UniProtKB/TrEMBL annotation:
Origin superkingdom: Bacteria
Gene3D superfamilies (alphabetical): NAD(P)-binding Rossmann-like Domain
Keyword Oxidoreductase listed: yes
Key word Oxidoreductase present: yes
Name the record gives this protein: Short-chain dehydrogenase
PANTHER family: 3-OXOACYL-[ACYL-CARRIER-PROTEIN] REDUCTASE (PTHR42760:SF133), SHORT-CHAIN DEHYDROGENASES/REDUCTASES FAMILY MEMBER (PTHR42760)
GO molecular function, one term: oxidoreductase activity, acting on the CH-OH group of donors, NAD or NADP as acceptor
NCBIfam families: PRK06523.1 (NF005095)
């Protein structure tokens, strides 16, 4: 397949570890100049990604990212809105405060809206671009005792992505969603360890609890690189007729096709 991204400029938010790092490394290997954001710099940057320190829950930091991209590259071809996390405590509706809801929606939804709004004028001027919003299988299959506020924010992200794809399709800009299932990342391992601690069970038992709740026919977590492979395809010219679509990468966990 002709999937080179040579000459293209890509932004990957939350791109210093886990799924984001795998995506950034994959796009770089395909030839793109990759910009990554995170609150703190990575311990190593062997692939030479351009790092911008930013907390996406702070609206002003979106302006910092946009200004630096414009000044240094004067274009943006790919946006991968990967930054996100399940920030709230488990236990169901009664354990969630207003602050818990705000935190999940600020990081998992509003930060994406702000990044896209800031950078889309550049894509519109270019008459080209590809946006990937990283969602989750839990947006369609929320686990009430684990992901209630997180799932609701990601479900909103799915609806927003479809609307944005419809608006921008005639302008040469494609918008797609990738929805991972259970992925072996530092955040996921922390999540499982927190379940183990709060439930007074072993980490292995907590892992099995999560897998049983989600139901994964392939019987394992995904590797971050397996998510990156789908993203690299979707932003390439091989997928130039694909927009407004949500790709599940969940080992078969989704009960419907």
């Amino acid at each position: 397949m002709e999937t080179t991204l040579k000459g293209q400029v890509a932004l990957v938010t939350g791109g210093t570890k886990g799924i984001g790092k795998a995506i950034a490394d994959k796009l770089s290997a395909k030839g793109a100049q990759v910009i990554v954001t995170a609150r703190t710099a990575p311990e190593s940057n062997t692939n030479g990604h351009h790092f911008i320190a930013a907390d996406l829950t702070v609206p002003e930091h979106t302006e910092v990212i946009t200004k630096e991209i414009l000044e240094k590259y004067r274009r943006i071809d790919i946006i991968v809105n990967n930054a996100g996390a399940n920030l709230s405590p488990g236990g169901g509706f009664n354990t969630l405060s207003d602050e818990d809801w705000y935190k999940d929606w600020e990081l998992n939804f509003l930060s994406v809206v702000r990044i896209n709004k800031a950078l889309l004028p550049i894509m519109l001027e270019q008459k080209s671009g590809s946006i990937i919003n990283i969602s989750t299988g839990a947006a369609k299959q929320p686990i009430w005792e684990m992901t209630m506020s997180y799932s609701s924010a990601k479900a909103a992200l799915n609806a927003y992505s479809k609307a944005l794809a419809s608006e921008l399709g005639s302008k040469g800009i494609r918008v797609n969603v990738v929805s991972p299932g259970v992925v072996k990342t530092p955040l996921m391992m922390d999540f499982i360890e927190n379940i183990a601690t709060s439930s007074n069970i072993t980490v292995d038992k907590a892992f099995q609890v999560v897998m049983d709740k989600v139901g994964v026919p392939l019987g394992r977590m995904a590797e971050p690189e397996e998510i990156a492979n789908i993203v690299a395809f979707l932003v390439s010219s091989e997928a130039k007729y694909v927009t407004g679509t949500n790709y599940s990468v969940d080992g078969g966990a989704s009960p419907t096709v």
